[in-house]
Design brief:
The protein contains 15 helices and 7 strands. It is an alpha+beta fold and 330 residues long. Helix 7 packs parallel to helix 12, helix 8 packs across helix 15 and helix 9 packs antiparallel against helix 10. It is elongated, with a radius of gyration of 25 Å.
């Protein structure tokens, strides 16, 4: 009897703790939001005002602003997992995305050619970035950028970074490129179809259609021009490829990795060949052999423009996927 009573009491205690924790959780959002958040917004308003952002712009963007608990939840619950290259490739480059990329390239061929020619970059890579970042414009995010950035800047994790991005977003509004209500993006503040953070927008966004605005949300000339300008400003070498799939001998003991640059003649002497089995056409060009899953998996020869793609997202897997999607689309 005493054992059953003790067990019941222990269960009741656990239940009370759960109820208390649930109640506290339900109160947590407004508890941390006020009054500190209002003071934080006031400090941002003052700093932006000193930087020249007009009061009317600040009124529209910041009046009545509240933190977004969904942003905090998503920021704290980012999945942690490791994919192999083969798994990543299957996930981000399914057949339907490759086919959609080909259709997107065909539908926008003239505009892509114009913007790629204007900035001296590869139109296929523009399409590759467009496809990976927003599914060719289909998935741009449903969060108000100012509210998201204010939430993340106040919440504390990487506060200085997000405060800087918030101030950059207010500068964009002040320039008149977009209105506050239309400035939508991911929960972390990445904006529009190229998914530029506000600081990247200020550095690289371009007016492709000549209307005086840089609209990376709706204007395809602006979207393509902005991605092309990003690549060009980051050092894209006109007329050179990003890389190519290659064949590697089954037993290969040479050094590999994106930073091990050697003439193609040296790689060829060790048995590396083009994917069709033929010799490289230029043996003096320098490249690096990349084996993203190690020996026995896919192999790529990558060139300096591969590093430029990595400036957009510092991941070998991402840069390979962008390059492959662009090659297929074009």
């Amino acid at each position: 009897m005493r054992a059953r009573t003790a067990l019941w009491q222990h269960g009741a205690m656990l239940q009370r703790r759960v109820l208390i924790s649930t109640a506290l959780a339900s109160l947590s959002a407004p508890a941390w939001a006020a009054p500190g958040f209002a003071g934080f917004v006031a400090s941002v308003r003052a700093e932006a005002g000193r930087a020249g952002v007009r009061p009317a712009v600040l009124d529209e963007a910041l009046h009545g602003l509240t933190p977004n608990p969904d942003v905090i939840r998503l920021d704290r619950k980012q999945p942690e997992f490791t994919l192999t290259w083969a798994q990543y490739r299957a996930r981000v480059l399914p057949r339907r995305r490759l086919d959609k990329g080909g259709a997107a390239y065909t539908d926008n061929a003239a505009l892509l050619s114009e913007m790629a020619g204007r900035y001296g970059v590869d139109p296929g890579v523009i399409v590759g970035i467009w496809g990976l970042e927003s599914g060719f414009g289909a998935n741009t995010g449903g969060f108000g950028v100012v509210r998201s950035l204010a939430t993340l800047a106040y919440e504390g994790r990487r506060a200085a970074f997000f405060r800087g991005e918030l101030l950059a977003a207010l500068r964009i509004l002040n320039d008149g490129d977009i209105g506050a209500s239309a400035m939508m993006g991911s929960y972390a503040g990445a904006m529009g179809q190229p998914q530029f953070m506000p600081s990247a927008f200020l550095r690289y966004a371009a007016d492709g259609d000549g209307d005086g605005r840089r609209d990376i949300w709706n204007s395809r000339p602006d979207i393509f021009a902005s991605v092309a300008n990003y690549l060009a400003r980051c050092g894209w070498r006109q007329g050179e490829p990003w890389g190519q799939p290659v064949l590697v001998p089954s037993v290969f003991a040479g050094a590999t990795g994106r930073d091990v640059m050697r003439p193609l003649g040296a790689w060829q002497a060790e048995g590396v060949r083009r994917i069709d089995g033929r010799a490289f056409s230029r043996l003096d060009v320098r490249g690096a052999l990349l084996l993203p899953d190690g020996p026995g998996g896919d192999a790529f020869m990558v060139y300096p423009n591969f590093h430029v793609i990595r400036r957009y997202n510092p991941s070998d897997f991402y840069a390979l996927a962008v390059g492959l999607l662009g090659m297929y689309a074009a």
